[in-house]
Amino acid sequence: MSKLLEGKVALVTGAGRGVGRGIALELARAGACVVVNDLGATLDGKSDGGQPAQEVVAEIEALGGRAIVNGGSVADWDAAQAMVAEAVGAFGRLDIVVNNAGILRDTIFHRMTEQEFDDVVAVHLKGSFNVSRAAAPVFKEQNGGVYVHMTSTSGLVGNFGQANYSAAKLGVVGLSKSIALDMQKFGVRSNAIAPFAWTRMIDSIPSETPEQQKRVEGLKKLVPEKVAPFVVALCADAAHEVTGQVFGVRNNEIYLFSQPRPIRTAHCGEGWTPEAVLETALPMFKADFYPLDRSADVFTWEPV
């Protein structure tokens, strides 16, 4: 394999298992030194007594690469600052941040608690901000760097019982675009990826009804390691013009997602009244209204 990332240093959050593990290993194969961040926790946030990050570091070292463990929480500002400091202290620089850490607290909206909402937003959205913000001065000083943030079709399209997760993941898209705009002059790029993968996190999806069971069986075909090559490509210097975009990776398929833009307009020279909106504007727009799709309603074909 060509060493596309030779001499670069990457920080991957939530890298002990699943998609994050695959990304950390693939970055190392491409020549990057890697900070493997993982709490070593169960899905409800409690310690599981395991050392997944250490195991990934051992795998990287077995490949002849260099890596260190970081056990900090992305939801904690100081811990995020420490991650970046450890990367620079160990390897002298930081070139890549992959915001992958995540949790689920799936609950139908009218039963969702404040804590369930706050916990998910704290990890996915605030965590992505914390780590990205910690790396920003380093990237600015180096006049270069790459952010890769994990979004989800739960936010881009929609899913049942995931108001907290969907809100956070769509927020990640806005964060990524804002970073791309604000840091472009420093040679910094920022993109978002919606990964399709069967991991420990989505193993908590209910599978009680025949419909749910069918969905879960389809998800089990999605290999988390398939996301990693695209991440490496995005981080390579050859992708220097790619920024502010939203992608998807689903086994051997790669998607470029649309971003919100006006698709219809209605104008009233005299100004709108509520009655005129109801009689004219909304009927004009009706044919272009989006249905209440879920992710599974859009991605209906079998993964390849």
Automatic annotation (TrEMBL):
Query: What is this protein called in UniProt?
Result: SDR family NAD(P)-dependent oxidoreductase
Q: Which InterPro entries match?
A: KR_dom, NAD(P)-bd_dom_sf, Peroxisomal_Beta-Oxidation, Sc_DH/Rdtase_CS, SDR_fam
Q: Residue ranges of the Ketoreductase domain? A: 8-204
Entry similarity comment: Belongs to the short-chain dehydrogenases/reductases (SDR) family.
A matching Pfam family: adh_short
User: What is the superkingdom listed in this entry's lineage?
Assistant: Bacteria
Known Gene3D superfamilies for this protein? NAD(P)-binding Rossmann-like Domain
Q: Extract the PROSITE patterns matched here.
A: ADH_SHORT
What the entry lists under SMART domains is as follows:
PKS_KR
What is the organism field in this record?
Aromatoleum toluolicum
